Every structure is written in structure tokens, then in C-alpha cells.
Amino acid sequence: MRLTRKSTQATLFGEFVPTFPKVRTSRGYLLDWNRNRIVRQILEESRLVEVFYGYEGADEETAKDIARRVERKIQMLGLQSLSGPLIREIVNMTLLERGLTSYRNVCTRVGTPVFDAHLIDVGRGFEAHDNANLQENAETSHKKKADKISKEQYLLQLPPELADHHLRGDLHIHDLEYFGTRPFCIDGSTVVPLRMENRIRSTLLAELPIDGDAWIPQDLCALTPGGWRRVAKVTRRRVNPGEMFRIRTSGGRSLLVTGEHRIPVRTDEGMTIRRADEVRPGDALYRISPTSAVRGETIESIDLVRELFASVPTELLENVYVRGAEEIFAGVVQSGRAASYAEISRELGIEHRKQWYTRGIMPVALFNAFCNRYGIEDYAGVTSGAAGSEHELPALLTLTPELVRLLGFFVSEGNYNAVPAVGQYNLAITENRQASAIGAAACTALNTYATIAGGAPDTTTIYGIEVERNRALQVYFGGKVPYLLFRYVFAIPEGAAGKRLPWIVYHLDDVLLHEFLSALFTGDGSAYYRPEKSDCIVNYTTASPALRQELSLLLTTLGMTPHIVELYGDDGERRTLYRLQLNGRRNIEAFARYATFLDERQNHIDGFLSAVKERAAGEREEAVVEVSMAEPTGAYVYDLFLDGDGSEESHTFYSSDGLLIHNCQDWDLRYFFYYGLMPDGNGTKASVAGPAKRAEVAVP
Predict the structure, then answer these.
(1) Cα-atom radius of gyration of the chain, to the nearest Å?
(2) Of the candidates 507, 449, 499, which has an alpha carbon nearest to the alpha carbon of residue 475?
(3) 610 — pLDDT class (breaks 50, 70, 90)
(4) Topology of domain 186-293+632-670, per CATH?
(5) Eight-class DSSP state of 487
(6) pLDDT by residue (tens digit) across 67-86?
(7) What is the pLDDT of residues 651-677, one digit of tens each?
């Protein structure tokens, strides 16, 4: 039987030679002709029309028909050499002949002729005189070539009727070269109130669990003027030099964003959206109003079994046990859910230790797995503690006034004195006037020890003169489980500059919130009533920029309007301190509803409120006072994509210090593919402009 090959011919010596020349690919390889490569290309690339235009991609029969037509054309042309770009041009012409314009738009190449590229290199041609800020150098040539390709690409990806509007000058897409690749971004140090799994946290954007460039959360909501709204996606990208702007307001609030990010501005006509680099001093921004939305469902107790397992690093839980669980273990066997203790061990995948079950002890991580496996939800009477320690906490830890007050003092004046490597897990709170009360609260709330140290006078030298000073008292308390509770479950970071509000604050009732804020302000706050000026000032000072944002937002939702002052910011040697100031009858009255100084400072509040009557005063606007270039705080900038309802307000959310900010969804290229391009005159989606200077699209 004689063998034949459809696309080859035989020489006199019986060797088979392809009827087509080798194909030189764009990647620099020489390959044999293969019509199926065209089929695969059309099937794969035409799927983009589903994203861009909402049409169906090519089916296999259509792709094979186009490939056969292309093969016949190449045979008829009698070409001596073939390249990937040349074959693509023939494919595109064939698609146009078949009337498949949308397929051609996504299969074509974007680029520039050699002659046009040369003109760019010599300072002529494409946008030669459009930007006086660009110097004539190699970098500018490279940028213009990249810009030209990007603009051609995005015009091709837009539905043709929308691209035509831009080319005719009916509307103008600003920065077209960045249209599909640059979301408008927020610095990672920005605090945003978020809700996940019915738990509210004030979260730094840099803390979000993004692996790569994007994260698709399953249950994440951001706080908007209309309430909580689902976050469909979170993105991040590397920040570029010179693209960050800081916007400061008359109230001391600030935003750190890229110049392209959209900022809602209050005008007589309502909300207007402007680029951050187009916001000007005098513009009024939106801030959060008094609302209960930021406070979630009240939590009365902490499930230490589940919370320790979920939040503490595994290596720190190795010697943390539950105790008193013998009745629970026995109940599982007696009810028939397990035949024996040994079977429970097999189900958990661990070596069987009978004494754990008979004595009612088990590592907390394994006990969590046990509860999940056998549906145990009630473990009243069970405690948790570290091996070798007599101090235990209930597995269901009640949030008492003493515990919440201790949290407030720790955020303001506390620090960790822990060395896990040697088994040291102390917490310390520095406070002179409340030291005894803090020690008593620690013993009561955490069933632990408490010692007070310091207080003896010592000497220091000031300007060459030796003087005596009193040392502050420090209350030491703790143990491993209290340390894990504060550091990981309540998530209070180490160091004064890293302090944060524990998430539980957003789930306290009014009574416990009052306890927390009272301790917080007693620790790092001040109050001063000036009868001669009929005024009272309450201050809170912190070195933590995140705590400043969190506390400013929380106080504003409670009906106060704090003014933020930065201290030592320009020194360069001393760290920046942030002071939140409250003054005026309305602010002090609202403060008194939610906090009480636990010492003589409360006399200033009471004296002011009894002596000074309320005065009619309008609400202060959050007017912009400065827009300046700034440095990012990290390598990445971030953005949220909200599931809006089409209105501008539904695409805004509250962030840093409680200021309203726009998400980037309106400017993501996919928004236009879905909604179309709707000129509205204020720059949110497109802006009405004069005629386009030139019509430039990719030409095959």
C-alpha cells in the first residue's frame, strides 16, 4: 500500500517536502505549515467578542472554513516565505469577506508601521506636539509607541458605535491609553469599614488577602451612603512614582489616592465626581453622617475555641488546651455518634490518648475539629488555658464591663512584654491614676495575676540640669491565653504607632461601648473647660495613623465631629502624632453620652455642660484646604469594585477618617462593555468635548 500525504510533495529521491514554506512566528521560531493552528487561533481569540460585544465566539465549523479559505489563498499567491503577521492579515481579510467584522476586531494585530515608528523616533508624527511636558528622548519615543498601540487596542475593544463617538468628537475619552489597564487606586494605609460573615471590622486595604492582582470575595460589603453594599472584587497594582496625591480638609481629614481616582464633591447641583488631581481648595467633600450602620449585631461573649483556632498562628496553640470536657466526650460515645474514644481519635486522624477523654482535656485546635465533626456547640463549663498554668478562661468568655474597660486602657496605654520563645506572655498598661483599678479589672476579667511596678522617683538631665521626676506606674498582667486573646483574637497590634480599635468595638451595646471609650479617653485623652471663653476641649492623642482614622470615623457616626491635628509631622526626627479634638456644646454633649473620664477630668465636662447653653450653629463643611503630591506608604495601591445600581452614590463608599470616595468600577473597561458609554458632562464616565484631533485606529 502506497502512503500519501495531503500537503506534501515527493522529490526524485522519495523525500517528502511541504508544499508551503516554513512559517516564521512572532516569537522567532520556524515551524511547518499547520492549518489547525489557524483553527485554534480563531476559536480562542474570537471568545473575546463575548466579553467586548456580547456576541458568541466562532464555532469549530466556522473556524475550519476560514482556515481552508486562508490556505487556498496562500497557495494561489505562491508565496516563498510566510510569517505569523502575514498569515494573520490574510485571516483578517477572510473574516471581513465573510462579514465577520467583530471576529476581525479581536483577531487583528495592533501596532504601527515602520515609517510611523521612525517619525516618532525623530520627534515627528504621532502626538509630536500634544504634551509639552515630555522631553525628546528615547523614553518619550518608547512611551508614544506604547500609547499608540494601547489607544488602537481600546478603540477596537469598544463596541464600534461607541468608538465612533470618540473619533467623531461627540465625546472624549480622557487618557485613552490607560483606559483598560489602570484602575484608580487608594493607598494601602487607608482604613475602610468592611463587613464579612456578619462581622464588622475597620480594615487597612493592605491587610486584605489578595494573592496576585485581584481577589473575588464571597461575602464582603463596604459601607455606602445607602448602607452596606457587596464588594464584587478587590484589585491591587504596583504604584508608580509621582502618581499619589494627598487631599486634606478643613477638619484635618485626609485621603491618599492616585491622581486619577474619583472623589465625590458636594456642589449646589448635588454630587459631582472629580479626579483627585482636579480637586481644588474650597471644594466640599462628603463625610459620614451619624449612623448606627457601622455597629453590627451585638456580641455578648467570645467563643475562644473557634476564635483561637481561627486567628492564632498554629505554632502558638501547641500547648493551649481545653479542660473540663469529659462529659462532652462521654456524651458523644453514649449517644452513639462514636463507638468509642478510640474511634473519635481515628476520626480526628490523631494518635489515641485515652487520658485526654477521661480527664476531659485536649489541645484547643483538636477540640475545635472535634466540635465541628460531632456538632458540639454548647460547651458551658469548659475552660481553656496553657499547659502548666493554673490560670484558665471560660471557653465561652463573657464580655464584661471589666474586660471591655481593660481593652480601652490597653489600646491607649498598653504594650506587649512578651517573648514567646522563652514562654513569657506579659501585657503592661502604663497609668498612674487608674493603676489599682486596672489591676483589679485584669484579675476579675481574665482570672490572672496583676502586679504594679514603678512609681519611685528618679532623676534625669534637662538642658544640663539634673532634675527629679516621678516614674509612671505600670500594671503587668497576662499569661499565654490572655496574650493570645488581646494580640490575635481582638487583633490589637504591637507598638504605639500600630495600635488599632479591636473589631469587637463595633459589636458592643451602648453600655459596653461607653466602658470602652471611657477607658480609652481616660488613658490618652484630656479635657479642659475654659469658663472665660465658654468653651471646653476634649482631646485624644495617638501615634497610630490607622487608629486616628478608625476613631475619627467611629466618633463621627456617634454624632461628633472631631478635628484632626497633626503634630511633629515636618520634624523628620520625631514621629507624627495625631490629635483628635472635640469642642462646642454639640460635640461635648455627644461625647458625654458615650464616654466618661474616670478621674477629675470629668469635672471639666460636667462644669461646661451645666454652665454653657446650646448655641445655634450650622454644620461645618469638610472643605478641601490642600491637594499635594505625596509618597505611597507601600508598594501597592488598591481598589474596590462595588455592585452598584447604576447611580453614582451606589458606587461610593466611606474610607479614611469617614470621607466618601468613589470606587473604580465606572472607569474599568468592562463597565463600558456592559453599560455602554454615556456622556454625562461631569467626567464620571465620559465627557463631552470638541472634535477629536485625529482618527487613529488599527488598519490591517
Answers:
(1) 34
(2) 449
(3) very high
(4) Endonuclease - Pi-scei; Chain A, domain 1 (2.170.16)
(5) I
(6) 999 988 888 888 888 888 88
(7) 899 999 999 998 864 344 444 444 444
Secondary structure of 64-120 as H, E, C letters: HHHHHHHHHHHHHHCCCCEEHHHHHHHHHHHHHHCCCHHHHHHHCCCCCCHHHHHHH
User: In a 10 Å sphere around its CB, with 0-12 CB exposed, 13-18 middle and 19+ buried, how is residue 561 labelled?
Assistant: buried
With a cut of 70, say whether residue 241 has pLDDT above it.
yes
The amino acid sitting at 78 is G
Q: Which residues contact 204 (CB under 8 A, 6 or more apart)?
A: 188, 189, 190, 191, 546
Grid cell 456578619 is found at 198
Separation CA 183–CA 260 (nearest Å):
8
Whole-number average pLDDT of the chain: 84
Give the Cα separation of 150 and 684 in Å (integer): 21
Give the whole-angstrom CA distance, residue 264 versus residue 261.
10
Length of the chain equals 700
Quote the CA–CA distance of 328 and 241 in Å, as a whole number. Answer: 60
The H or E element that residue 51 is part of is helix 48-52
The SS3 assignment for 605 reads helix
**Separation between Cα atoms, residue 128 and residue 119, nearest integer Å:** 9
Exposure string for 226-245, b = 16+ CB within 10 A, e = fewer: eebbebebbbbbebeeebbb
In the chain, ranges of CATH 3.10.28 domains: 399-504
Residues of the chain with CATH 2.170.16.10: 186-293+632-670
Residues of the chain with pLDDT > 90, as a percent, come to 54
Joined grid coordinates for residue 307: 476564635
What gap in Å lies between CA 451 and CA 134, rounded to an integer?
Answer: 66
d(CA 659, CA 255): 8
What DSSP string runs through 111-179? Answer: ---HHHHHHHHTT-STTTTS-TTS-SSHHHHHHHHHHHHHHHHHHHHS-HHHHHHHHHTSSB-TTGGGT
Q: How many angstroms separate the CA atoms of 407 and 518, rounded?
A: 11
Q: What is the CATH number of domain 399-504?
A: 3.10.28
For residue 656, which phi and psi values (nearest 5 degrees)? -25, 120
Q: How far is CA 658 from CA 200, 252, 540, 651, in A?
A: 15, 11, 17, 16
CA distance linking residue 173 with residue 175, whole number of Å: 6
Question: What is the C-alpha separation between 192 and 655, in angstroms, rounded?
Answer: 4
Tell me if 315 sits within 8 A of 356, measured CB to CB.
no
Residue appearing with cell numbers 491637594: 627
What are the φ/ψ torsions at residue 651 (nearest 5 degrees)? -110, 25
Residue 696, Cβ density class (10 Å: 0-12 exposed, 13-18 middle, ≥19 buried): middle
Q: What is the pTM (predicted TM-score) of this model?
A: 0.73
